[in-house]
Structures are given as C-alpha cells and as structure tokens.
Design a protein that fits this description.
- The protein is mostly helical and 125 residues long.
- Helix content is 65%, strand content 0%.
- The longest helix has 42 residues.
- Keywords: Membrane, Transmembrane, Transmembrane helix.
Amino acid sequence: MDDIDGPAGGERPVPDGATGRPRDRSRREPSPRWNPHVVVLVVGGFALIAMGVRLYRSALDVVYSDFTSRGTHGLSDVEDGDAARDLVAMQVEWTVGPLLIAFGILSVLVGVTVLAVRFRRGASR
C-alpha cells in the first residue's frame, strides 16, 4: 500500500527540467486574457467589414451613377468592353460585399466572446 503513495519519505519524483525555483520574471509573458490570435481575429474582422462596405458602396456607385446617367442601364456601350466589365464587377461586388460584412461581424463576435469567456473565467478564480 505504501508503494501507491510514491517513494518512501513522501517525496514525489521531479520530472526532468522541473525545479523548485520560481520562474524567471525577466522575460515578459503576455496576459492570458490577450491572446494574439484573438486580437488578429478581431482586427481581421474589422478589416473584412471595411472591405465589404467598400465593395458594396462601389457596386452601388456603378448602379446609381453609371446606369442612370446613360439611361439605357449601361447596355448600349457593351462593345467597348468597359460597360461589360462594370456589370461583372458590380455583380461580384454586390455578391461578395455582404458576405465579407457578415464574416467580419461573425469574427468580431467570436473574438469578443472568447475574450469575455476568458475574462469571466479569470474573474471567478
């Protein structure tokens, strides 16, 4: 039964590299609440939101400035190629912009939730 508790004398074996000395505090360790990956997630989320808003506004500019000024919805100048590129770019921006905004909001919410859970867990200790 004494073998279950460890070696005689109540001492437990120390794993390699583990000592009884306190850690060297000269090297600054990041706070456990501020994980750099979570910070990048939140900053990246804001960047996605900004890019999505910019793409969506660009698509709206093409719709309301180009098409209404020509009066034919831009289809009369398809031969020169610029109107066709404008139409394709507008459709891509119209589709991708809201997706980037949604993914940006989602990543900001995930980052803030992770920080809130860590803060809550740290406050209860």
